[in-house]
Amino acid sequence: MPSRSRTRLRLAGVLAAVLVAAGVATGPAAQAHEKKPATLADLAQRHGRYFGSATDNPELTDTAYTRILGHEFDMITPGNGMKWYATEPQQGVFDFSQGDEIVNLARANHQKVRAHTLVWHSQLPGWLTSREWTADELRAVLKKHIQTEVRHYRGKVYAWDVVNEAFNEDGTYRETIFYKTLGPGYIADALRWAHQADPKAKLYLNDYNVEAIGPKSDAYYRLVKELKAQGVPLHGFGLQAHLALQYGYPTTLEDNLRRFARLGLDTALTEVDVRMLLPATEEKLAQQADWYRDMTEACLAVRRCVGITVWDYTDKYSWIPAFFPGQGAALPWDEQLAPKPAYHAIREALRAPR
Ligand code: XIL
Q1: Predicted model pTM
Q2: Which Pfam families match (predicted)?
């Protein structure tokens, strides 16, 4: 053995002796102890699922935040950066800088991207909403928007929320600018255009209050059947799952996921949060944890439920307090980035063998 190696060995021995004397364990047990605990992504992957989080560009300067974002999840969704107002702020002038920043971050962290969203009545640019369009004009505008954006991210994203929030609570079509001008066929058109632009991306319809079986999810069930019968490219149904403790848990979630799977679709919980009336109490946080556990179990119970995304992971950056005044504490990490009971409940659900 060369003498330098021997010196090194001796030094290692001395170091170990010092550590032992100081009460610091050094053997295999210590190594096992130091082994990093499995992340939500690791645990989900054991079931062939992903575990994701939304994020947003302004938060990315918070390094304590990005450390957890990059570590704990294997799927990322831009909370705003890929929406129409951000990506086509003037007609025909595209800006993908915000989405790109998030796609690049995801790539650096070996994460996939659920892209969100192409056709939605909300967060549209002023140039689009402030004038009247003929059907031909709007169809051309919509096609160009979809195809330019999907082409830009071709090969870089796993899935697209192609149409977001197309139905009212009673299962009638939401009277959006697209529906009013183009009729219900805009949905099939949007899916076909997106598919042409990226034939490998999974294409989703996505909505809230569709977790339970009821008029709104029934409307999707019927629409999916029709679209499938017509051979329209559609691969998934996204259930946002913005739940609120005061409105009760959607107990038919698992059955609902299963009926969409039977139509040949993937499903995903795409924007999960569980808000509560503030202040948060220990009791409410425990109930919230139960709901996160139940949702996770429901997804794991249905083979084609491919993954879960929380709508950001920390209360520090949740959209809830701004949109539902007096409510909040909706996510599995608190405002100090400390895991809440919900985080541990998700882990427990993911740890259970299946
Ligand atoms: C929210 C964002 O999180 C907020 O930052 C933004 O101000 C409004 O939109 N359903 C959706 C998401 O599909 O796009 C919404 O995201 C939350 C509700």
Answers
A1: 0.91
A2: Glyco_hydro_10 (PF00331)
